[in-house]
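Milestone 3.1: sequence recovery, worked example.
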């Protein structure tokens, strides 16, 4: 069905051309004429069909012979100097600025459709020049914290639980769901931004679609705004990786938590918890010794070197530290900034580091 539809498109695009279409065969021959279409699994071309000139006067009369070629015989097809491959794609160019909303690309995709995206240009954030590949750093306040700050990213659909796609300056991917394609730069702050990325979106033509506009298939154009902040009450999954050195009394994660939030921690790596304890994992060493007796460690009942967490509240007070270890699902009992640390009373002879992956969610009435 798609082959037949492609044939119809080819015919429509070639009837008005003054120059001949050309089929290049794998055996080195070339055949010129008018490409009729793709008929019964073969390319059909009317050889030497006379064409009208720009004055509208035919240069000859009569019709030429129709020849057929199977796809495995054909190296390529050119339509008036253009490759047949160009007809397989629709192209749209979008200017992507950094602002309070994601940029509506105007492209509605279907699941399993293939898209090719290329981007260029520069966004200026303060004095920093950002290209579509982003910076050599991450931004804990960005929509996708693990990706480079400022990188071109995309998402399909208006659901804040939809996965975010890393694009950069060039990316080809297959859509995993139906929906509108939105684009933005992966940066939390946008008030100091100016300039834009120029983004070219190429998609394979859906030759069976009924709509004239193959980019925007929807009849209803309402609801196309996707704010960078989620709607009130929406839960937005986030993920962040933090390194906690063995010498750390506290690493600011950049995550503001609230009572009732749910966080999941997964930790790996090794730290040296002093010369006497030696190397330990996120669970720490044996909970014994002076620290457990007099409470000099933040969490006296947990061994030295263990991974722990605490919440620094707005008034500067610190919540009761809690044990994280190698894995924990945690619901805070206070609002504030999440801090990670090493459970020890002497950090001077420590070393190593833990890598901690934090999965959490924020709600729509909070800053991104």
């Amino acid at each position: 069905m798609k082959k037949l539809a492609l044939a119809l498109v080819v015919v429509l695009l070639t009837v008005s051309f003054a120059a001949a279409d050309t089929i290049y065969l794998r055996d080195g021959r070339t055949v010129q004429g008018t490409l009729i279409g793709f008929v019964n699994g073969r390319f059909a071309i009317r050889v030497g069909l006379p064409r009208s000139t720009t004055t509208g006067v035919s240069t000859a009369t009569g019709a030429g012979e129709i020849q057929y070629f199977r796809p495995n015989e054909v190296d390529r097809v050119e339509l008036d100097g253009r490759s047949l491959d160009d007809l397989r794609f629709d192209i749209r160019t979008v200017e992507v600025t950094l602002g309070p909303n994601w940029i509506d690309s105007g492209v509605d995709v279907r699941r399993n459709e293939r898209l090719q995206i290329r981007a260029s240009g520069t966004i200026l954030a303060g004095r920093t020049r950002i290209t579509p590949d982003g910076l050599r750093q991450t931004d804990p306040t960005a929509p996708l914290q693990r990706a480079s700050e400022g990188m071109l990213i995309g998402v399909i659909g208006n659901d804040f639980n939809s996965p975010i796609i890393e694009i950069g300056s060039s990316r080809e991917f297959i859509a995993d769901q139906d929906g509108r394609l939105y684009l933005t730069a992966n940066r939390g702050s946008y008030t100091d931004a100016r300039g834009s990325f120029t983004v070219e979106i190429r998609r394979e033509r859906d030759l069976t679609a009924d709509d004239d506009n193959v980019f925007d298939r929807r009849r209803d154009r309402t609801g196309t705004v996707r704010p960078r902040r989620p709607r009130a009450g929406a839960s937005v999954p986030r993920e962040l990786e933090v390194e906690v050195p063995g010498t750390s009394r506290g690493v600011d994660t950049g995550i503001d938590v609230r009572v009732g939030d749910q966080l999941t921690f997964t930790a790996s790596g090794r730290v040296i918890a002093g010369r006497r304890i030696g190397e330990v994992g996120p669970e720490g060493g044996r909970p014994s010794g002076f620290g457990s007796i007099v409470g000099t460690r933040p969490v006296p009942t947990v061994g030295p070197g263990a991974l722990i967490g605490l919440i620094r509240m707005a008034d500067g007070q610190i919540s009761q530290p809690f044990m994280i270890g190698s894995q924990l699902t945690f619901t805070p009992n206070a609002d504030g900034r999440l801090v990670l640390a090493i459970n020890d009373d002497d950090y001077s002879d420590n070393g190593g580091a833990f890598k901690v992956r934090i999965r959490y969610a924020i709600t729509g009435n909070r800053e991104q």
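The longest helix spans residues 2-14. The helical segments are 2-14, 274-277, 290-294.
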